[in-house]
Amino acid sequence: xxxxxxxxxxxxxxxxxxxxxxxxxxxxxxxxxxxxxxxxxxxxxxxxxxxxxxxxxxxxxxxxxxxxxxxxxxxxxxxxxxxxxxxxxxxxxxxxxxxxxxxxxxxxxxxxxxxxxxxxxxxxxxxxxxxxxxxxxxxxxxxxxxxxxxxxxxxxxxxxxxxxxxxxxxxxxxxxxxxxxxxxxxxxxxxxxxxxxxxxxxxxxxxxxxxxxxxxxxxxxxxxxxxxxxxxxxxxxxxxxxxxxxxxxxxxxxxxxxxxxxxxxxxxxxxxxxxxxxxx
Length: 280
What we know:
The chain is α+β, with helices and mostly antiparallel strands. The protein has one domain. The protein has helices at about 5-10, 30-40, 90-95, 145-155, 160-175, 180; strands at about 40-45, 50-55, 60-65, 75-80, 85, 105-110, 115-125, 135-140, 190-195, 205, 215-220, 225-230, 250-255. Strand 9 (about 190-195) and strand 10 (about 205) form a beta hairpin. The longest helix is centred in the middle third of the chain and has 13 residues, at about 160-175. The model has no long low-confidence stretch (mean pLDDT about 95).
């Protein structure tokens, strides 16, 4: 097909940011930092390689995900602890903040709630930025490795991909059947994963994560949370995922309780204020 005469002019049209975010309510990072100084660790959970585990963080607490033993990425799901229908909305989070998250940015919840669930308060990989390939860390563009895509592309039945890991962990934690738990599993924050899109074909790519033992991503829980974290079977995702060949390592989740006095003036965010009349 021939290009139209004005093809160059059409390509040269300037982009417009879809959701300018300068009016978003800003987290009080100074308040969170001060509260974190006196917060006390109350629990820790080790997520085994190629498995997932659930954890709880109440509103006003902090939770930290740390790489231990070796480079490892993780897939994170979050739900409202009292209402699983309110869950992390990766697509809207991506629209509001960009393809990758870091300190000061938030994980937003699904409609009709659309409110902050958690705020990133510390990121030891913040230095990475965007590399020459267009790659960065902690993405909200990948969906999670899953058995359905594996079966579609390779005819396999691999059960320790992140989707299945998260399904089993949620089922075990809430005493649900696998069939009942699976619909609650959703698109993830890919913690520590280094990803981007190729410039020529626009395909989603991964590369070796820059994470090293001791690196961590820490969050402030804006509402009562149930979380699930999968230690991805791709390890550092330098070659492949959803297999038993990659070197995989555990991940550590730690929960820290704040002194309520240190959060004076802070309130858990209310659900979105849209009246839900939808023009009727």
